[in-house]
Amino acid sequence: MAGAIHWETRSAIGLLTLVHPGKLNAMSVAMWRSLREVAEDIDRQRGLRGVIVRGAEGQFCAGGDIAEYPDFRFSVEGLRQFHEEVVWPALSALLRCEVPLIAQIEGACMGAGVEIASCCDLRVAGEGARFGAPIARLGFSMAPREAALVARAVGEMTAREMLLEAAVLDAQVMERRGFLHQVVPDAEVAAQAAARAERMAALAPEAARRTKRLFFELFGPDAGVKRSGVAMENIVSTAYDYADSAEHREGIAAFLAKRRPNF
């Protein structure tokens, strides 16, 4: 199974569920494409007042589906296409969505999971949740737009710790650092996320949409670029040159072989 994005509505509240059995809901290429389609569909549904974003079976998302990586990661064009034409459009669709999004975070929230959670307006986590982006162990760095997204959400210091040290942080640390709005016992995460969604649903929906449009203009992915005058396109143009590098191949190969990488 390549994984799936399950979507359902309960009155004015929607449930978006990442589903990839046996892989802690790791994001496959098919899931990224589906996520974009679902996010765009959510934005068109005027009756929705809030959406809970969650993972199946008590896990949020363990990152990307590394078993797929050898198919496209070792060429510059394949790597660029994956991040710029598959991953980023999905994340961008979440960011641009004018319906409030609540992340219900349980278990693993790694890499792609942190990116998806960073697109949500509110984040509620269980005490047992763990956060990180240990891709340095796999021999590659985070794509530019995705790194900017994560750094804005978790803070630059935390992003550096996650990416340079491969640090995995617990929910209490992430709450203290301002990434999480609430940490509750694991058994209460779903109920708390639902309660927040219900509170949102009782408020003015068009006001929420206007607020989200305003926040996107103020804090969205291009806001800092516009202010600084730095063209993201210039960064992206060389960001994937490592695709065929030895350490990139070694990191993926070691993971798939279940051995320690030799960098």
Automatic annotation (TrEMBL):
<dbReference type="Pfam" id="PF00378">
    <property type="entry name" value="ECH_1"/>
</dbReference>
<dbReference type="InterPro" id="IPR014748">
    <property type="entry name" value="Enoyl-CoA_hydra_C"/>
</dbReference>
<keyword id="KW-0456">Lyase</keyword>
<dbReference type="InterPro" id="IPR029045">
    <property type="entry name" value="ClpP/crotonase-like_dom_sf"/>
</dbReference>
<dbReference type="GO" id="GO:0016829">
    <property type="term" value="F:lyase activity"/>
</dbReference>
<dbReference type="InterPro" id="IPR018376">
    <property type="entry name" value="Enoyl-CoA_hyd/isom_CS"/>
</dbReference>
<dbReference type="GO" id="GO:0006635">
    <property type="term" value="P:fatty acid beta-oxidation"/>
</dbReference>
<comment type="similarity">
    <text>Belongs to the enoyl-CoA hydratase/isomerase family.</text>
</comment>
<dbReference type="InterPro" id="IPR001753">
    <property type="entry name" value="Enoyl-CoA_hydra/iso"/>
</dbReference>
<protein>
    <submittedName>
        <fullName>Enoyl-CoA hydratase/carnithine racemase</fullName>
    </submittedName>
</protein>
